[in-house]
């Protein structure tokens, strides 16, 4: 996949713009600086740069294709934009921020391109890495873990009740790495662990296991925990922290942090969700939840 084919519609665009309608100005008169911790194709960043002409932005992403697409999309904003090749869990800004935005969702280009291995609906390698140039693939992870560890992972990150049966079957089918089998083959093996009626349900039987493997391969929850711990210290007093989550494992962490962190004042008592028109036009927005908090003065 090249950057020309990377097209990603930002979710909850109106809610993000409304949530970031105002923020504190730096005391030294410098331009306000926002961190887009999950740059993707640059959709949210472009909206905010357009709405706030004085804004400067740092965008982080570990996916090289996403960075290339964002660089092209944000080129009209010139030196107002800095793009950094990193994940947000290990980043520290060099100056105070007026806002931090993180969209935790997997983008449509990542899901839809078979070569990335995120989807069981496309016949690609069993990869699932956000950064395809580094780290352990999902196939290597399945081969490395003991059966009990794999079962615990599938249960914890996928909330899959058949985790032990699935882990037993995946271990029996080793090796996965270097075997030539694809993400569709993996989904078929997982599906075989379910009774026939469940295989014909609304949700594909491999959905939760694929989610669990992707979260583990990319350390998604660890990344989020580090962001929630560190981001409030990056903000100026009155600065905003906004996080868009897509499943309960993420949203619970964000909700708990916003409620329990003395540095933050929660601005959204309930998460903001997609309006009916957006949910119909972009089905992946239906599970998106935006929570916003403000750094106390």
How would you describe this protein?
The chain has 2 domains: 3-109 and 220-295, Vaccinia Virus protein VP39 (Rossmann fold); 131-217, Putative methyltransferase TM0872, insert domain (DNA polymerase, domain 1), CATH 1.10.150. Helices cover 40% and strands 14% of the residues. It is built from 13 helices and 7 strands. It has a 7-stranded mixed sheet with strand order 3-2-1-4-5-7-6, with helices on both faces. α2 links the parallel β1 and β2 (56-60). α6 (147-158) crosses α7 (163-172), α6 crosses α10 (207-217) and α11 runs parallel beside α12 (248-260).
List keywords for this structure.
single chain, 297 residues, alpha/beta, Rossmann fold, DNA polymerase, domain 1, 2 domains, seven-stranded mixed β-sheet
Brief synopsis:
The protein is 40% helix and 14% strand.
State the CATH topology of the largest domain. Answer: Rossmann fold
Bulk shape = elongated
Structural class: alpha/beta
Indicate the proportion of strand residues.
5-15%
Q: Give the topology string: H per helix, E per strand.
A: HEHEHEEHHHHHHHHEHEHE
Query: Could you give the distance between the termini?
Result: 45 Å
The rounded Rg comes to 20 Å
Q: What helical percentage do the residues reach?
A: 25-40%
- In the CATH scheme, the class of the largest domain would be Alpha Beta
State the major sheet: 7 strands, mixed
**CATH H-tier superfamily of the largest domain:** Vaccinia Virus protein VP39
